[in-house]
Design a protein that fits this description.
single chain; about 220 residues; mainly alpha; 8 helices
């Protein structure tokens, strides 16, 4: 998540102070990625160091304001135009967990998958319920270009991304479980010893001495 670019996008709309930026950032994203004031001011200090923002006096309440510079505006526009890099994906805890669970002693990987699937579907239901509320808010303010309307539309887009993400995760979990089942079945077939044919003496039932029928004396001596 690029906090610096998010703050630059808000500052392009006008000078703001730290806690105001935090509030507007969380309002725009539905607090999906909450910030604390310390993160905001640390990021502002780095942006100021890099020449992308500059102090802009104080507001009536004495809050120090920051404004975006031409360099910051150019960086923001490049960010909007530049695709998000997918060649170095962020670490995914679930993918790492399943990878480590394979062959781990005492771990039932199918149980891990089933528990995660339950949690993922629960999250999807929660996001879908929130989406219904966001849609009502967006439709009620349709045609009105207001700050609240922009926040509602932004929150709707974030929610829809989360829904698509959880749907993909649920499909991946189903796929992973099916693959594990197929691999287990294949391994079981490979471990089953081949059935020997009737001519194989090694599989002929052993006959104990006590089970042999005694021959008659005539048979033993060839007498008729």
């Amino acid at each position: 998540m690029s906090i610096r670019h998010g703050l630059l996008a808000l500052l392009e709309q006008g000078p703001r102070y730290g806690s105001q930026l935090r509030t507007e950032f969380e309002s725009r994203t539905g607090a999906t990625w909450p910030l604390n004031v310390g993160q905001v001011y640390t990021t502002l200090s780095r942006l100021e160091r890099d020449g992308m923002v500059a102090p802009n006096g104080d507001d009536d309440a004495g809050h120090p304001l920051y404004a975006i510079t031409d360099a910051g505006r150019a960086e923001l526009h490049q960010w909007f135009e530049r695709p998000v890099d997918r060649t170095s994906p962020p670490r995914d805890e679930l993918a790492i967990k399943l990878a480590m669970a394979i062959g781990a002693p005492g771990v039932d990987i199918r149980a891990v998958i089933q528990a995660q699937r339950h949690a993922t579907l629960k999250a999807m239901q929660d996001y879908t319920r929130l989406k219904a509320q966001a849609l009502i808010a967006v439709e009620s303010g349709a045609g009105q270009e207001t700050h609240r309307g922009r926040d509602d539309m932004a929150w709707l887009l974030v929610l829809e991304q989360l829904i698509f993400q959880t749907e993909a995760e649920a499909r991946w979990l189903d796929h992973s479980e099916s693959r594990l089942v197929r691999l287990s079945a294949s391994a079981a077939r490979g471990a089953t010893p081949p059935q020997a044919g009737p001519s194989d003496p090694s599989t002929a039932p052993a006959v104990s001495a006590g089970s042999r029928k005694p021959r008659s004396a005539a048979a033993r001596f060839g007498r008729h």
